[in-house]
Design brief:
By secondary structure, this protein is an alpha/beta fold. The protein has two domains: 227 residues, TIM Barrel, CATH 3.20.20.70; 88 residues, no CATH class. 32% of the residues lie in helices and 18% in strands. The strands form three sheets. An eight-stranded parallel sheet has the order 1-9-8-6-5-4-3-2. The protein is globular, with a radius of gyration of 19 Å. It starts with a helix and ends in a 23-residue tail after the last helix. Bound molecules: flavin mononucleotide. It comes from Candidatus Accumulibacter appositus. This is Putative enoyl-[acyl-carrier-protein] reductase II. It holds the Pfam family NMO. InterPro entries: Aldolase_TIM, NMO.
């Protein structure tokens, strides 16, 4: 459809955000199969877990897909090991999506492999640094975004400044994009692609806890706020979440005791109050007190739907027609929808 989509090997330049605890193989594969960018959240995963996840993806879809890593959560050596674990496991090119600026060692290994690279940034200064890694695209994250925030500018202002400073690199937008119409406006201004998170939390394949999905359905942008309270495990970075009694109180107002348990790869871990971890379908306890990351894009969440439907609706909105206006939509029986116009 455009050069960015061509480089990533996808049909439409919508990329699902890698989201720790939410974006596993089921979600990433479903999005990839629908022709958009499905992305596996690898977060703090160890190399052996990474290799296993990548192999599962390769078995689930023949479409290209992405892998998401977060440099600031790993020391440089461990980040390079994560990258190598991906590269050793893949049998065809994937694309890497870094949250924040990666190390040169990591991007050099990726460039040598022939895989593509996207880097998410929060400011024009970071965009300039990101360009030095020669990525296929740089993702601009505005403060309307759900999850941890890289910068301090709303998307529109960041995009306007970044378009003037792009130096020819393709730009993607993230944060508060609630549907294809919103992306269409950005696209018309010169943005090549977009990254959506919250919209994909609210899908059947997302691993988010059912109560979290329900709260997305019941909430609007005004129910989100930027806070720093969910800092256990990821201190020092503000995040946009759904309001709850922890965000309403002063930081540390409640004791940091365990409020639940979560299962990760078959191991049961206690969840402390103020943990940065999201409540997943493997979590039990005081779900309402946990970190439910949510962007202004929640305005586009009107139902919990299959990921394929989320993609198809988004593309139809982008093209200026509503799903109901398309006879037979969204049924796509061949699994190989093409968005060529
Ligand atoms: C539940 C949730 C978890 C997230 N986890 C990650 C993550 O692990 N890695 C990452 O790069 N970004 C993560 N993000 C941020 C997204 O990359 C993206 O910036 C954001 O979702 C865009 O805003 P939107 O939610 O309004 O679409 C997360 C976002 C959400 C909502």
């Amino acid at each position: 459809m455009n050069e960015l989509a061509r480089r990533l090997g996808i049909d439409f330049p919508l990329v699902q955000a890698g989201m720790g605890g939410v974006a596993g193989v089921a979600l990433a594969a479903a999005v990839a199969e629908a022709g958009a960018g499905g992305v596996l959240a690898l977060y703090r995963s160890r190399p052996d877990t990474i290799a296993a996840c990548v192999r599962q993806m390769l078995a689930r879809t023949s479409r290209p897909f992405g892998v998401n890593l977060i440099p600031e959560l790993m020391d440089p050596g461990a980040l390079l090991e994560q990258v190598r674990a991906v590269l050793d496991a893949v049998t065809r090119p994937v694309f890497f999506v870094f949250y924040g600026l990666p190390t040169t060692a990591a991007t050099t290994a990726i460039a040598r492999s022939g895989c593509e690279l996207l880097i998410m940034v929060g400011s024009v200064a970071e965009l300039r640094t990101a360009r030095k890694h020669e990525p296929a695209g740089v993702i601009l994250q505005g403060t309307e975004a759900g999850g941890h925030l890289l910068g301090r500018q709303p998307l529109e202002r960041l995009v306007a400044e970044a378009l003037a400073a792009s130096g020819g690199v393709d730009l993607l937008a993230a944060g508060g994009i609630g549907g294809g119409h919103a992306f269409r406006t950005l696209y018309n201004e010169g943005v090549a692609g977009c990254v959506c998170g919250t919209l994909f939390v609210a899908t059947h394949e997302s691993l988010a806890h059912a109560d979290y999905k329900q709260r997305l359905l019941d909430s609007g942008p005004e129910d989100t706020e930027i806070t720093s309270v969910f800092e256990v495990g990821w201190p020092g970075r503000r995040h946009r979440v759904l309001r709850n009694r922890l965000t309403a109180a002063a930081p540390g107002a409640f004791p940091t005791t365990f409020i639940g348990f979560t299962n990760v790869a078959g191991v049961r871990h206690p969840v402390p109050r103020y943990s940065a971890a999201i409540p997943s379908e493997h979590t039990e306890g005081r779900i309402d007190e946990m970190a439910m990351y949510c962007g202004h894009s929640v305005r586009g969440v009107t139902a919990i739907v299959p990921a394929r439907q989320r993609v198809e609706t988004f593309v139809a909105e982008f093209r200026g027609c509503f799903p109901e206006a398309l006879p037979g939509f969204p049924v796509q029986s061949d699994g190989g929808t093409r968005w060529t116009s």
